[in-house]
Amino acid sequence: MDEFELIRCITPSYYRQSSVIKGIGDDAFVFRASGDVVFTTDTMVEGVHFSRETMGPEAIGYRALAANISDLAAMGSTPAFYSVSLVVSPEWTDEEILSLYDGMDKLAANHSMDMIGGDTVSGRQLIVTITAHGYIHKDKGRYRSAARPGDLVFVTGTLGDSRGGLETLMKEEMSSSFLIDRHRYPEPRVRFASGLTSLQRVCLNDVSDGIASEANEIAEASGVSLSIEEGNIPVSRALKESYPEHAQEWALSGGEDFELIGTIAPEEEQALRTAADETGTPVTFIGSVVPVKDEPEVRLHSLRESKRLLRTGYTHLQERR
Asked: Could you give the CA distance from residue 244 to residue 185 in angstroms, rounded to a whole number?
């Protein structure tokens, strides 16, 4: 199957978004904006972000798009479109490539998203690059720089599950289908984030590298410090039972859970809880925002000690330094 045959196979018969003026079939995509527009791009590389030993083509496609949708959610955006650029190696069959696109469409349908273009070239390994677009109400973008002293710190869902799922797959065990599904088929918190439009000020960050990284990003961007209670960090029963010695570590730095960490003013706590209830989203308050002493930092408190929580987890390009 050459590039043009692939385009014919993946071109949708209709578009879910009414704002599409011209989709696949021309040199570029045309749409009519009805508000502020958000763009995000993510790249997944075979052997770095995924392995065919632990994930099939459909799950790879699903998870690649999930990473982008989670970024849109962290901005308070409603997803609308995505485009896909592939570098395809000879080892991948036509059926596997089409299954990759099927995985994307499976998740896209849940969010009424349209695929509106992309590019396909040959190479030595599979590389999936997705650019996703979404809408937000005017002046309702949710930024890392919005945290203020006195705010409450919260997270959605449970943390560390994706890392536990990867470990389970690498051991070729099927002890926890919950953890495996959390790794292969994460569900970005779009509806919850979109339900926060009534709140005046919300700071949000996507949990892709682990909250040890994302909490520090919020502290630095906002010029504040975060105080987090270790005992409040939500960890699933499945992770505790399967990996009791690693559960807490992976909850902090396991990454790829695609949950949200954020801050809100104390007076808006009930509004956030209402949005969580209405969208069926588990939310846990894990700490507070405090003024900076010497420099922005994150402190992790337990019954035994208080320590600085440093950035941990995988960092791209660190080997080049």
From this structure: 23
Identity of the amino acid at 202: V
CATH number of the domain where residue 289 is located: 3.90.650.10
Taking only the tens of pLDDT, the chain with its 321 residues reads 776 677 677 777 778 887 887 777 666 768 777 778 999 999 999 988 999 889 999 999 999 999 999 999 999 999 999 999 999 999 999 999 999 999 999 999 999 999 988 999 999 999 999 999 999 888 888 999 999 999 999 999 999 999 999 999 988 766 679 999 999 999 999 999 999 999 999 999 999 999 999 999 999 999 999 999 999 999 999 999 999 999 999 999 999 999 999 999 999 999 999 999 999 999 999 999 999 999 999 999 998 899 999 987 555 545 444
Distances (CA, A) of 131 to 72, 144, 222: 11, 21, 27
If you search the block for the tokens 């065990």, which residue do you land on?
Answer: 173
From 96, 117, 136, the end of a domain falls on: 136
> The pTM is what?
0.89
Number of structural domains found in the chain: 2
Do 231 and 279 lie in a common domain? yes
Q: Integer distance in angstroms from the first to the last C-alpha of the chain?
A: 41
CA distances from 201 to 156, 167, 256 (A): 17, 38, 26
Is residue 13 a part of any domain in this protein? no
Q: Residue written as tokens 């801050």?
A: 263
Q: Which of 71, 105, 136 is the last residue of a domain?
A: 136
The domain containing residue 51 runs over which residues?
19-136
Q: Helix, strand, or coil here: 83?
A: strand
Residue 320 lies in a domain: no
259 and 226 within one domain: yes
| Residue in the structure block whose two tokens are 């309702």 | 140
- Same domain? 295 vs 179: yes
Task: Please check whether residue 4 lies inside any domain of the structure.
Answer: no
Contact of 297 with 224, CB cutoff 8 Å: no
The sign of the dihedral angle between the CA atoms of 240, 245, 248, 251 is negative
